[in-house]
Amino acid sequence: MFWEIFDFLSSKCSTKTADWLMSQTKHRPQVAIICGSGLGMLADTLKCQDSFAYSDIPGFPQSTVQGHAGRLVFGELKGKSCVCMQGRFHMYEGHSLLKTTFPVRVFKLLGVETLFVTNAAGSLADCLQPGDIMIIKDHVNFPGLVGLNPLCGPNDDKFGPRFPAMSGCYDKNLRCLAMEIAKQLGVAGLMQEGVYAMVGGPNFETIAEARLLHRLGVDAVGMSTAPEVVVATHCGLRVFGLSLITNKVVKSYEDSDSVNHEGVLEVGRLRSHTVQQLVTELIGRMEINNNNTNNAA
Ligand SMILES: O=P(O)(O)O[C@H]1O[C@H](CO)[C@@H](O)[C@H]1O
Ligand SMILES: Nc1nc2[nH]cnc2c(=O)[nH]1
């Protein structure tokens, strides 16, 4: 009963929100971008903007984290129609996973075909330094592995199947194109592919946790992204993801470094231009398949 009410509300709500947005803007986005902590400047690249505070959008959750402005920006980028979330929702804010991923289904209903997810993350791999950019090749969804998954509850067949495959959820062609663009922009030295892991947060890792993640083969860790990608893949969106490495995760008891959110945001500011260039070129050069038949509407 509980799940039935929840599911009904989610499905109805996303349709209501998408309809409201379509009544307020002429943009019909093909691409959606979710900005990670300190990466909200990605929206500044959009031309002919229509912008909405989350608090004005029916059904939208509210951002509570510093570095997440809480605005949905529509606009054009290199001839493609885009929508950009300046601020995402995290599980640790107290949102249900249905709420943290709610915008993804709204994007599907708006006709979006490709989702760009970005985040700030700590590095566990020795070869990833603060300021580097990791193209996400795959993820480990730790909350998902223990049942904290936005797809739990009755399946909404309008969006996708009960048991969606997640192998290949980060599009290989887009990953290759991103590396090619990085070479042309002269920033290939900052970039490599890796595995992102989502943990629940809001605390950063203990040293024992950091060592565990490292041994498990995780390259970068954060507190977001995986649920959005699961929901996007479930409803057939193509996904590209990148992590801006904002800090090294402390793995040694001898190391006196410690991470804080202000430092995370600062690295975002320092790398804003490069991240903007990469995303702009990638969106400009990627093919749109127009395979969002919008059959979830
Ligand atoms: O994942 P995004 O939203 O980029 O933010 C990352 O940065 C914050 C910690 O500084 C956490 O919210 C973590 O998930
Ligand atoms: N969990 C986690 N999230 C982050 N976001 C940015 N840096 C970090 C980090 O070191 N750990």
Automatic annotation (TrEMBL):
Glycosyltransferase found in the keyword field: yes
PROSITE patterns, sorted: PNP_MTAP_2
An example molecular function term from Gene Ontology annotations: guanosine phosphorylase activity
GO cellular component terms, A-Z: cytoplasm
Pathway in which this enzyme or protein is active: Purine metabolism; purine nucleoside salvage
Annotated EC: 2.4.2.1
CDD domains registered for this protein in UniProt: PNP-EcPNPII_like
Ligand binding (a purine D-ribonucleoside): 205, 247
Binding site for phosphate: 37, 68, 88-90, 120, 224
Stretches assigned to the Nucleoside phosphorylase domain: 31-283
Record keyword Coiled coil present: no
Reported function: Catalyzes the phosphorolytic breakdown of the N-glycosidic bond in the beta-(deoxy)ribonucleoside molecules, with the formation of the corresponding free purine bases and pentose-1-phosphate. Preferentially acts on 6-oxopurine nucleosides including inosine and guanosine.
Assigned protein family: Belongs to the PNP/MTAP phosphorylase family.
Protein name as it appears in the record: Purine nucleoside phosphorylase
Organism this protein belongs to: Amphiprion percula
